[in-house]
Amino acid sequence: MSDLITLKEIYKNYQRGREQVHALNHIDLNIQAGEFVAVVGPSGSGKSTLLNIIGAMDLPSEGTAIIANQDITRLNEKALTQLRANTIGFVFQQFFLQPTLTARENVLLPTLFSKHKAVESRADELLDRVGLSERADHLPDELSGGEMQRVAIARALINQPKILLADEPTGNLDSQNAQAIYTLLDELHHEGLTIITVTHSTELAARAERRIDLHDGAIVENHLVKEALLK
Amino acid sequence: MNLFTLSFRNLQRRKLRSGLSMAGVAIATAALFSLLSFNTGFDRALQEEMSNSGIHMLVSTEGCPMEAASLALHGGEIPKFLDGRRLPEIRDVPGIRTATGMLIFSLIEDEGKAIYFYGVDDNYRDLKPHWKIRGEWFSGPNSIMLGTEAARVEKRKVGDKIYFPSIDTEFSVSGIIERTGSEDDGFFFLPLATAQKVFKKEGKLTGVGVSLSNVEEFDKVKGQIEMLPDVYVVSKDQIMQQIMSITASSKTLMAAVLIVALVVSFLGVINTVLMSVFEMLREFGYMRCIGASPSHIFRIVVFETLMLCLAGGIIGVVFGMMFASLTDQWLHELLPYAPAGRFIVFDPLIMLASVLFATLAGLLAGIIPGLKAAHASPMEAVRNV
Description:
- The complex is a heterodimer of chains A (about 230) and B (about 375).
- Chain A is an alpha/beta fold.
- Helices cover about 30% and strands about 30% of the residues of chain A.
- In chain A, β7, α6 (about 175-190) and β8 (about 195-200) form a beta-alpha-beta unit.
- In chain A, α4 (about 120-130) packs across α5 and α5 packs parallel to α6.
- Chain A is globular.
- The two termini of chain A are about 15 Å apart.
- Chain B has about 375 residues and is of the alpha+beta class.
- The model of chain B has no long low-confidence stretch (mean pLDDT about 85).
- The interface between A and B is medium-sized, with 34 and 27 residues.
């Protein structure tokens, strides 16, 4: 299998007041298409910074980051925008649903910015897929936290991305809703979607094929989890 | 769904703030619409009134043209009177079609209301061929003709008697002039000799209205009349120019107020949209995460201001039309000279220009907030989580 994501000697530094912060230190990482990867580590270890670089939202200070065959350090703003629109789906802890749009409209939102046409039937399929077909015309404030996150996942999938990035997707959910998200991510993974999640949840990390432990911006462990080894 | 939907929904999120900004734009547009209408309406009404007056020149005793303009069109008194002997002399000047003597006098009746009397001779009919009279022209020395408004206010009809205590005279209404849309509607017309008698101005005239057989001979006729003693000739164009110059300062003042209103509403729109942009920076950042380009974000914000200003513009024009009669009334009271008739009328071109201006202002007002929003970074969404 070919590598979908290749990070070579990645460093990320930024200034916080007078202090120079080394968020990532010499990261080398390859992720193949179809992998389910969990990035874990304590707060401030650089997990989200790593995810932002993989998502082409941020650029490394040094090193090479090749995402879906494109070196993001060499792309201009327009190309980065297109990469995010057409190749990557994002799910965040805060859901970021547009409060004035219905669930269906929120799912369709990324199509306004991509080469994909806004097709309502596709949005309805995805809402059905995440178990929210009955809630398609509801506004976000009429949905529970779990429902909002499922809408956010459906939205991340509307442009048929190659990579799904999830930053603490169950961080704001109770255990029952978190279970539903785990199951959904499992299903998407088994359908061949590449998923990279940053999480503090041991249960979610345990469901991943590969677990990457970060500490002080460096990878301290990068290994297949037990279930994957059994496969 | 499209970018317009997003912009529209964003406006709906802050109903009160959007509503207030829209109201500001509507007020400014209504003011713009009223001023544009007034500028064209005033000139048109003045032209109509001059044309309805039927005179090419007014001969009065020496004085300022402002007084001549005022008395010719608006009714009014001047302290000096023309010697009545000039009237036959003026009639003898070659090239004159009609010369009619006029004595204009006002009375202050109860409640401080001024009543304007126009003493006119039979030649006056030649200057007013468009008049339609219910009843008849003066039927005797004590007959009176009323303009439509005068008859309405006095509640008189043809054949009624009307008594004026201050001159202790009773008149019989011989005719009522149907609405002309000019100042004539409010005048009380008397036979010239009767007016001279009751106002104790025997042999005196306020002026002589002159209509020419051939307008091209204006200068020649004017020169000959001015050879008569104690006369002053004012042309129709001079009267118009005089009126326009005395209203110019009012127009300038109104334009200045309008500019202030436009600037304030323009800044209000920028402020409203800028505030909403600051509140939504994180949302815009998230939109950047999911593939929105700076141009998409810019358009969302500009569409928002466009909708705000377009709606405000349309509402402003509708309100401008709805309150046109009130504005007309106010302008008639405000201006030193205002011709009769409505200034603010349905003019699709002015309506379109006003809405277009508001829309253009919206486009400009959207640029600063739009650029601010377009620079929202995708990191904006995930920072400080």
